[in-house]
Amino acid sequence: MATMKAIRIHQFGGPEQLELETIERPVADVGEMLVRVEAAGVNPVDGKTREGKFPPIPAGKLPITPGRDIYGEVVASCDAANGFEIGDKLYAMLDLFHGGYAEYAVVSSAEAARPPERLSPTEAAAVPLAALTAWQGLFIHGELKAGQTVLIHGGSGGVGHFAVQFAHAKGARVTTTVSGADVDFALSLGAERAIDYQNEKFEGTGPYDLVLDLVGGETQARSWSVLKPGGALISTLTEPSPERAAELRARARRYMTEPSGSQLAEIADLIDDGKVIVAVDTIFELRQARRAQEYQETGHPRGKIVLQIGE
């Protein structure tokens, strides 16, 4: 029996529930590939999954391996028509039950794309979930167009730093809220204006065609005052008020990120064209997964946290 090292959760709770174990190596099924994982992204949703909060996982499905995005090498394939061969590199956002905190992972062909050539393995692993969240919020749900204005709350984090760059690269005018220490960083990404939320209010700016809310709470509630009538308020966290949306004839929704190899291919082109950089805050080893999630939850990282796996 072929085995591998993997992080698993046997019961919901804090970072102490993350256990490094030796388990059976998975096997690819029809339409899938087995990938030797070289690096895996760490995201806020990993902690919520570990706590049993979101996405909701029945306790009967435990144990699971967390981790939604990876970079690695194809070592076996059950899909001859997908364009990948043994030895090819890829990056992907995984579904909920094929975790990336492991030496090997099963990847659906539809989830994967060839990674940006200019990135290291750890940089590439930082991209999929955060970048797809930004992409889908801006362009799929937010329907942002060139020449429009967008306010991005939380523009220096994992999702936010991609959102600022994507919006700028597509010709939108970007304002973002960040901490005072991240103002210059946000401006370097392409924001026209970076508001220090600790010392300034965003009220009085705009109005905006789109507000992308990566913060939630009272920040979302205050955002209605700067949204154009007929605009959109799109959130990754909480459902925006339908009553306020009706008053402004606005589109308002909370969304969940979906895996998409085709969108990752577009994102890879932007990165290789030099229009988007990838900010990696800290790299941990697989055995340090607890520390990585603790830092994600308490350390306010700039950009992404990544697990380096193997050599």
Lay out the secondary structure.
Layout: E1 3-9, E2 18-24, E3 32-42, H1 44-50, E4 69-77, E5 89-93, E6 104-108, E7 112-113, H2 121-125, H3 128-141, E8 149-153, H4 158-169, E9 173-178, H5 183-188, E10 193-196, E11 208-213, H6 217-223, E12 227-235, H7 242-248, E13 251-254, H8 261-272, E14 280-285, H9 289-298, E15 304-308
Describe the structure.
- The protein is built from 9 helices and 15 strands.
- Strand 12 (227-235), helix 7 (242-248) and strand 13 form a beta-alpha-beta unit.
- The protein has 2 domains: 3-127 and 278-308, Alpha-Beta Complex (Quinone Oxidoreductase, Chain A, domain 1), CATH 3.90.180; 130-254, Rossmann fold (3-Layer(aba) Sandwich).
- The model has no long low-confidence stretch (mean pLDDT 94).
- It is an alpha/beta fold.
- Helices cover 26% and strands 29% of the residues.
- The longest helix has 14 residues, at 128-141.
